[in-house]
Amino acid sequence: MDKFVIKGGKPLKGEIYAGGSKNSALGILTASLMTKGVCVFRNVPDIEDVQLLLNIFESIGVKYVREGSSVALDTRNIDKTYIDTEDAVKMRASYYLLGAFLGRFGEVSIPFPGGCAIGSRPIDQHIKGFQALGASITEQDKCRITAKADSLQGREIFFDCVSVGATINVMLASVFANGTTQLVNAAKEPHIVDAANFLNFMGARIKGAGTDVIRIEGVKSLKHKAEYSIIPDQIEVGTYMVAAAATGGDVTIKNVIPKHMETLSAKLVDMGVSVSSSDDSINVKSTSRLKPADVKTAVYPGFPTDLQQPFSVLACIADGESTVTETIYENRFRHLDELKKMGADITVKGNKAVFNGVDHLDGAQVYATDLRAGASLVVAGLAANGTTEVCNIEHIDRGYEAIENKFMQLGADIERVSE
Question: Do 269 and 379 belong to one domain?
């Protein structure tokens, strides 16, 4: 098992490039299975979740070639819709195969998807959408899901709660449905827009992505060839922005869509951090003690739940009392016990954490409990006095491409060590 050894207290300075969006890549790569041809994708992050997805694809007859940040997929010879590889259990996004294969083949069976243990993430809204389109769904003791449909029929579907996964999944299934499908109370995240843009480029007819009502006019087929570039990763960018602020640094992040970062940028400015942007980059500069702030997570364009954990490091060292309220997942405060090992003063009351800012954090041995928790502990180690060891970093590798190398480019003293 690997760990990160970090000697903190050094301001981060310099320039780095953000990689492609994890969440966009997982949805769009799966969407390409809906066509029978070859698709080439650029700006694909080299992370564990993408490799797991490619492993799943290979197990069902998809051929792929990966060179750097480019991935070519040949989907002409898919030979089964019953997915039985254990890799499908290791990641949440394997559920996108339900929507993609229902649309293309009319049947699919997958193991119940897994992922980070950050709380209950039921797929009832996915199932509701598929059933509304005319699919029959069978669940086997929460171990396997099977979906079948002779044909899918478009109709209006109202999601009981905003769900990113359900929005993308039902959108995939609706591409080949007869007539018109309308998704109401849809999620609006940037990677939903990216998935819709890719599908439209391939010949789908989707309008309204990025709003709470998405309209899909069914088509008979998609193009058999495409090249497409994945958008930058909003959460990776946000993590580097928080790290710059936490260390009193001066960092420019390139390959960015600044509009996607407006909520975090505004909160950093409230804390006394300088944030400026150009067309495709953001500069974050911090020269004084952070002011306290209150954050409440919300669906996009609200404050992202995926940035709550890294942001909480800033609350630990701000000058006064800050609060963080988590409204999306119930188990997303597990990292706070690790931050307490580093000297943080935190009290948790239900879904609200109260931070009494301390002068500094001290290095300690800490353990990542999930992907974004791991990122928060790396940020804390970079800001802390002394040496921090972050263990269980396989969680971090699921969503960040060589995170230690990018921090080293900014002058951080961080090393990956095999235990």
Answer: yes
Q: Which of 207, 229, 251 is the last residue of a domain?
A: 229
Q: Considering 116, 161, 316, 391, which one is annotated as catalytic?
A: 116
Give the count of domains, the chain. Answer: 2
Q: Which of 229, 248, 269 is the last residue of a domain?
A: 229
The DSSP bridge partners found for residue 144 are 111, 140
Q: Are strands 144-148 and 136-140 parallel, antiparallel or unpaired?
A: antiparallel
Residue 116 catalytic? yes
The verdict on 195 and 246 lying in the same domain is: no
Q: How far are the Cα atoms of 24, 212, 289, 294, 330 from residue 37, in angstroms, in the given order? A: 20, 32, 55, 49, 41
Give yes or no: residues 15 and 29 share one domain: no
Expressed as residue numbers, the domain containing 339 is 2-19+232-418
What is the side-by-side order of every strand in the sheet holding 250-254? 13-17, 250-254, 281-285, 274-277
Distance, CA of 345 to chain centre: 28
**Which residue carries 């790290």 as its tokens?**
243
Three-state helix/strand/coil letters over 200-243: HHCCCEEECECECEEEEECCCCCCCEEEEECCECHHHHHHHHHH
Q: At 135, which CATH number?
A: 3.65.10.10
Show pLDDT as tens, one digit a residue, over the chain (419 residues). 899 999 999 999 999 999 999 999 999 999 999 999 999 999 999 999 999 999 999 999 999 999 999 999 999 999 999 999 999 988 889 999 999 999 999 999 999 886 444 444 578 999 999 999 999 999 887 789 999 999 999 999 999 999 999 999 999 999 999 999 999 999 999 999 999 999 999 999 999 999 999 999 999 999 999 999 999 999 999 999 999 999 999 999 999 999 999 999 999 999 999 999 999 999 999 999 999 999 999 999 999 999 999 999 999 999 999 999 999 987 889 999 999 999 999 999 999 999 999 999 999 999 999 999 999 999 999 999 999 999 999 999 999 999 999 999 999 999 999 97
Q: 159 and 289 share a domain?
A: no
Same domain for 198 and 256, yes or no, is no
202 & 323 share domain: no
